[in-house]
Known about the structure:
Elements: H1 9-24, H2 41-61, H3 83-100, H4 117-137, H5 146-159, E1 178-184, E2 190-196, E3 199-203, E4 213-217, H6 219-226, E5 238-241, H7 243-252
Parallel strand pairs: 1-4
Antiparallel strand pairs: 1-2, 2-3, 4-5
Helix pairs in contact: 1-3, 1-4, 2-3, 2-4, 5-6
Amino acid sequence: MNTVDQPDHSAAVAAETARFVGLVKGADLTAPVPTCPGWTLADLIKHTGSVQRWFSVLLRQRVQERPTSRDVDLQLPEQVDGYADWLTASAAVAADTFASVDLDAPMWVWGADGHARFWVRRMLFETLVHRVDAERTLGLASTIDPALARDGVDEFLANLPFAAFFAPKVAELRGSDQSIRFQCADTGAEWLVQLRPDGFGVVADSAATTADATVRANAADLLLLLYRRVDRSAEMIESTGDAELLDHWFTNSAF
């Protein structure tokens, strides 16, 4: 993919949380979330704030191996009408943690980048995607900064090969060296993912390589497609090449 400066993930967590809180403050928190079947808006808020607090614990402890427990004092309000303010407080906990931790320090992560900064970036896209879920619940249009969306696509594709321990279908993403190119029409960024007999991953320096299939969209739409918030059949998504390969990818690549 093209090398560009990364966004300020810490600042973006705060900004995305503020947008999320602005959406849900005063909303009907019993409303079902269409993009997260079985969840209400209250569940969506609780999940997002819980992730922020859990990742903050990992960062403060700078854990060096996979934790055996996810027990965290969430300080969750007894009444759901306090959830919006609680989410604001969760982001404040995260911000305090970011300021007190060396984000370049090595630590255990489940993904590709074995440093504390992994958790800040992961927290950002958890928050951003669920902010979009809240907008879909409330019937509102979503906008995502193209540079942020490009970074989100990169984060998703870089980490997906490591996700099989909690997303078992990812282990099915194998092939005989077939490749899929993902392109951001607006930012110019692109990634070539190769499916090998032993697994898959992003191929570096792949601009001259011919892909078996290509998926092209603006960065925001491509990000939401990867997270299954946009359907492959949507008019803003352009897919060409090996349809069976694309079916195989999208059947097994969710996490």
